Amino acid sequence: MARSIMIQGTMSNAGKSLIASGLCRVFKQDGYRVAPFKAQNMALNSFITKEGLEMGRAQVVQAEAAGVEPSVLMNPILLKPTSDMGSQVIVNGEVFAQLNAREYFAIKKTLMPEVMKAYNTLSEQNDVIVIEGAGSPAEINLKDADVFVNMGMAKAAKSPVLLVGDIDRGGVFAQLYGTVALLDPDERAMVKGVIINKFRGDESILTPGVKQLEDLLGIPVVGVVPYVHLDIDDEDSLSERLENKAAALIDIAVIRLPRLSNFTDFRSLEAIDGVSVRYVDSTRAFGSPDLVILPGTKNTMADLLWLRQSGLEAKVLRFADTGGAVFGICGGYQMLGRTLSDPHGVEHGGSLRGMGLLPVDTVFTEQKTRTRVNGRFQTLPGAFSTLSGAAFSGYEIHMGATVSDSPAVEITDTVQNISRTDGACSGNVCGCYVHGVFDGDAVAGALIRALAERKGIDPKLLGAVSGEAHKQAQYDLLAKTLKEHMDMTAIYRILREGVQ
Hints:
By secondary structure, the chain is of the alpha/beta class.
């Protein structure tokens, strides 16, 4: 059975996911078989495994850092919010139920056997398990329901805990001290080290505070990790990449829908020097982009209404009418069509007029499509002609079925082993269901080349496209940073000794 170590945080977005990813990479580099684990993840960024099962994107990143194939064993429970009060609950990669918070808390304990089955299977297959917590272990109003999120999972796995605080937000000593103080005595005993994350400046100035914190807690500070700018997929919409940015030589505007999902689809484009990917949520911020992307969403019809009411639909329509390039993915693709119908009340109910930019019609069904695909663009006209013949791979997660008059891609469903067409293209507007369609170097390179040529820019002025190499380099940089700024000798001792 594997040894384990758990990363918990003083709050959401303290850096748990990145610290866990970095440790996965360090343990891999040191020759161990390592896997990530997060019992419950709440996120709209999800991924489809090779078996056609759905899991949180954060554990996919950690699996990539560990050099292993993502598996739903690493994230047995995924909550995908559909409103402020409710979420789609996914268990072992499949839709379990649509529940509000009270309903979920009522049945949460019944899911513990599924969590432990997944964890124990991973433990049998690996040397080290890096477990990630969620939010804070000191949410005293929720502690009774913490059966597998933070300390409940640490106890079940008999895992020592490293507690991460975010100094960039301020008050890190209060964060760490207050969190430990609110834990029960048996829980405090499981915290074997604390980490100060996102530090900027001269570490020697921090040293007196670190010593005093260690004296107060009786727990060693095992790392002061600097604020490092890394291009690694973030867990959800707390991501800094969603903040508005200045336009570059090639300016791509992604519409920041209220229920935006899978914004990781654009990571490869963001990695190219000379290309800016801006997330736009108002007409004022729209600017003069070279490409507008309508991304995925957890509720297409509600977000289309928001797009209409915000004035951004009119902006996109005028942009397309003047020849601007527009691409839609998944829910964004559905919005670009003629009609959306929801006879079963899956999303919004009733029917809705689409944006009318693509010759497609969508009907929402009760059956969720979850699959992995390989594909190739067909011969495309106009703005996206350079994509003709380009190969890609990705995945689909959606509730609707769309009929297209002019399919844009040929795909092979690798889960069901069937071939079919998908998407649509009409002049300067294109769309498809495939998440990750821009991830491959061939598609990303062809797209940026087309945008540069339309703008009269020499593509050689832009950076090289190297998505996979760039991604691996970022994981290595993260691991190097942790090795330099964390006491790995102490962490290996904590891992080895475990908890009593």
